[in-house]
Every structure is written in C-alpha cells, then in structure tokens.
Amino acid sequence: MKKTISVLLAAFMILCLGSMVFAAGGRETQVQAVDAEENLRASLEVDSSVLTAADGQQLLRITQEVPVIPARPENPSALPQEDPLHWYDMEFAGWESTKVNIPASPGDGAIGKRVTMIVHGDHPWTTACTTGAQKVADAYQMRLNILSPNWDLAVQNQMIDQSINERPDMILLIPLDARTAVQQARRINQAGIPLILFNTLPTAEAMNFAITWTGPDDFGQMRKLSMEFADELRRRNPGASEIGIAYVQHAPGGSPYFARSWGPVSELAGYAPEIVTLDMQAPGFEADRTMQLVSDWLTRFGSRLKGIFAADDSAQALGIIEALKRAGREDVVVVAAGNSKIGMDMVTEGSLFAITYQTAEGDGALAVQTAADWFNGKEIPNRRNLPQHIITESDVADFYPPQW
Asked: Check: CATH 3.40.50.2300 for 96-216+360-387?
C-alpha cells in the first residue's frame, strides 16, 4: 500500500512539474512575442530622416528617378566596348536578379541587432562612409562592427569567413572585385546570414545571393558627367572635327574602374562622336604618379589633348592640375568623380570644371538604413540608388563644408 501511494505521489509530482514547465515555457514564449512586438514598434518610430551629413545635406537620400532598364542583349560581351549595352550586366546588375535562398525578415525590429560592415580599404572617403553608417546605427541602437581589409582581397575573404563564424544578424559588404564578389556573396548566403551589398557593383550573378544592393548609380552618374564634359569641350573647341581626351582610371577590378572610364566612353560614342580617346591608364591614387602620367601625355599628344576624365577628385585631381600648371596648359578641360574638399576647392577656383555629388556619408547610411528596414519587415527593392547630381562652379558652395 505504501509503495502504491509513493508511486502515485511521484507521478503526481512529475505531472505538476511538467505543467509548471509547460506554463513557464508558454509565458516565456509570450514574453518573447511581446518583446518582439515592442521592439518592432520602437524601431518603426525611429525617424532617421532628420539626420544630416557633415556638409549640411540630408544624410539619407534615395533617388526618386524611376530607372529605365533596357532589354538585355543576348550576349552583351560580344558587343563593342563603345556600345553602352556591352556593359549591361554591370550597369544594370541586380534590377532583375533571381534571388536564391534569401532568408525571410524576422520582422522583429532593428533595435539591438548586430551588423558587420566589411568595407574595401582605408581612405578618407571610407572614414566618411562609416561615419554616416554609424549615425544610422546609433539612431536604431544597432551594434555595428566595421572591418577594413585595406584593399587586400585575400584579407577581405578572411574577414568574411571570420564574420560568418561570429554569426551577426546581417553582413554589409563593399565588394573589392566585381567578379569575385559572386563567390563571396554565395558563401555568406549559404551560411544563412542576410547580406546587403553596397557602394561598388558586383556582376549580376552576385546580386542573386543578396537581399539588395545600395549605393550610387556610378554608370548613370558618369554618363551625366560625360555629357557636361562634352558640352564644355565643344564650347571651347567650336567646329572641331576631333577632340582628344584621356582617362585617369580607378583601381582595376572594382565596378568604378569600368563605370568611370567605359561609362563615359560608351556615352560619348553616341553623344559626341568627335570626342576620341587618346589613352586610358590607372596610376593609382598618388598625386605624384598621376602627375607623371599626365606630363607624359602632354609630351606625347601635345595640343591634341583637350580633356581629362578622372576617376578621383582628390589625389588624382591634384596630380593632373599640377602637371597642367607646369606645362602652362590652361586649355585642357578636367572633370572628376567625387566631391572631396580637394575637388570642391578646385571647382571653386576653376581648375576643375565639374565633379559628381557622391555622398560618402550617405552611402554608408543608406546601407544601414536598408538593413534596419529589412529587420522592420519592410519590402526592399532589388536596388536602392543614391540621387545623381553634377557639381559645377555655379552650385559648389551649396556642398560646403565637405564630408571628407
């Protein structure tokens, strides 16, 4: 009898304990659900539109232009490089991507999320970019971890592996190389970590493994700049049957290398066919090396050289202008991508004719804001572009103080 009572009592205690555990588990699930709802509510109330960049411009700006996406040629690479559609898979990468294994948004809010941002390298532009990113991260109380491989692709790959092992809530990546970005994006995707690519465009395939891409429409911006460039060259060389120009290119491999030389070349082929390319070279981002390159061009091409299109408005622009000054050449029109303090000062003094508004802070900020929107369950388009604008002497004062 005593044994029977003991067994019944033990069974009763187990049943009670199970009920308590079940109840506790239910309360925990309920508490978690309430916390997620509260976190989402608080995240949606964050107003990041009031944030400003160092230049006084609104930090977060997304282009309102509706992109016109032409039909893809059957084999773009078979077209001449002077044909804009040759660059279709790079210029329009991501707009019509086929997404693979993209995780669903948790929809539980951005506050408290851990985000790893892997940039391309150390540079004043990158400092401004991460400053903008941090402003948005702070607004959402997100924990932002910023890593820089200092322009080394092997190191960037190691950082990607390290980040995968640390399992952040999201990875933001500036691809160092447009083509190898496919392997990088696939690796992050297969690990089940949400990915946003930003700033430099990868090839189209890489976009399949990312939620989205954010940044400047570099090809579109260079096409706009090239038309301003052509109009000024024509004004200074009326009736000329040939106007020779040269390109100081970006670092080979990344999308700016292609966008900031072949974008203008392919645009000018139709817009101003009398403008011919004399040479294209990538001397890096040292003023001395660029100055030597331009000095060689001046000796080699003489008066045929009427214009220079530069990928960088800081060190490269300094080298170009110094070479022209030493040669006494005031007839050469110079334009450049970017709007550093160096470039804007040169536009103000008249040695640079035009530059592009390429907000560094806004670039980083847009990537983090898009991550926050995804955590908040908002619908994310395949691409988010920054607005385009060409800065000339007429409006350069509006963009002071410079971001970098």
From this structure: yes
pLDDT digits (tens, 9 = 90+) for 80-110: 999 999 999 889 988 888 999 999 999 999 9
* 298 token code pair: 């001046």
Sequence ranges of the domains in the chain: 96-216+360-387, 219-356
Q: Can you read off the two tokens belonging to residue 22?
A: 């079940």
**CATH topology identical between 96-216+360-387 and 219-356:** yes
| Predicted TM-score (pTM) of this structure | 0.84
CATH architecture of the domain with range 219-356: 3-Layer(aba) Sandwich (3.40)
Residues 237, 306 contacting (CB under 8 angstroms): yes
pLDDT above 60: residue 378: yes
Q: Is 180 strand, coil or helix? A: coil
pLDDT at residue 303 above 80? Answer: yes
What percent of the chain lies above the pLDDT cut of 90? 83
Burial class (CB in 10 A: 0-12, 13-18, 19+), 245: buried
Q: What is the dihedral of CA 345, 349, 351, 352, to 10 degrees?
A: 50
